[in-house]
Amino acid sequence: MYQIKLLNKISPAGLDQLDKGKYKCSSEIENPDAIMVRSASMHEMEMPESLKAIARAGAGTNNIPVDQCAEKGIVVFNTPGANANAVKELVIAGLFLASRKIVPAIEWAATLKGQGAEVGKLVEKGKGQFAGPEITGKKLGVIGLGAIGILVANTAHNLGMDVYGYDPYISVDAAWGLSRAVKHAAALKDIFTECDYITIHVPLTPETKGMVSSESIAMMKKGVRILNFARADLVSSADMIEALANGSVGSYVTDFPTDELLGVEGVVAIPHLGASTPESEDNCAKMAALEIVDFLENGNIKNSVNYPTVVMPRTEHARICVAHKNVPATITQITNKISELGINIEAIVNKSKKDYAYTMLDINDKITDQLVESVSALDGIIRVFVFD
Prior knowledge:
By secondary structure, the protein is α/β, with parallel strands linked by helices. It has helices at about 10-15, 65-70, 85-100, 100-110, 120-125, 145-160, 170-175, 190-195, 215, 235-245, 280-300, 330-340, 370-375; strands at about 1-5, 25, 35, 55, 75, 140-145, 160-165, 185, 195-200, 225-230, 250-255, 265-270, 320-325, 345-355, 355-365, 380-385.
């Protein structure tokens, strides 16, 4: 029976994907085959030898030591796109919040409590201070055209916005889903200089950290409205506060409140509600569970952040999967070793991702301890998985 350790409460919709005759799920399991996690930090956790996979029910994996897991042959999955609609809806709400000063207007209206019959007159007298522009006809720049960015771009276009998209790494599948009306921005500078609104949908990396700073803001239209529903550190808080104070930025809507940003005029700080819908939690849990099942039962990898996507249909043959360093001649060593043992390889597929690679082989014989030990002893081999 497969042992699945739960580090957070996982939606029953996800756990229902796991056959109770094959899978035991609990937060108390000591030697798990896989871990399902949402936000719990795993950086100080000692990874048991039994652990083969970690499935993050969500997109971000900052709470998981991804590189350390790769070195140990632990495949880390995430669930890209499962929460995309939930985040998209909040981003669209953010566009209106950025424009119409809705939050400060509601807060001001609450101060009128107790004014009795005068409330109506006070509302009419004071509402002018909260006037803001419509989004129709305005230019929106979408930085990052992944699952969320595409939905935002398409929806904003349907709302009458003139949408520009920037993503030098857009996938073929993503491109198929993008409206033809979205204009291609060849460089970030095009977004910064052209757009009235800018929304960010890229992962946090050393290259993207602080992509919105005093330097980039200086290229933008005066009064630009910026939305960040991706990661806090994509935007320099200090530079944003300064830009709001001098009028360079009209408003900043973020799903990542920090102490510096709270209470700053022009900031709408939302308490990380992007994926906080029951539908999103169900979708993420389902995808995470199915990723674990396909890996533990078939060796297939899809949506991993530290190993390549490798999928091969199962046949009646036994399967051996090898996680290894992405170095020359490794595949030749593996196939030669199998041939030396008199075993025929019926099917093979290999893919790599940066420093790591994954090779799947279906063979026409039983997988013996000798075979596993022989392959495991080769240079560059990290881990061998067996599927009889």
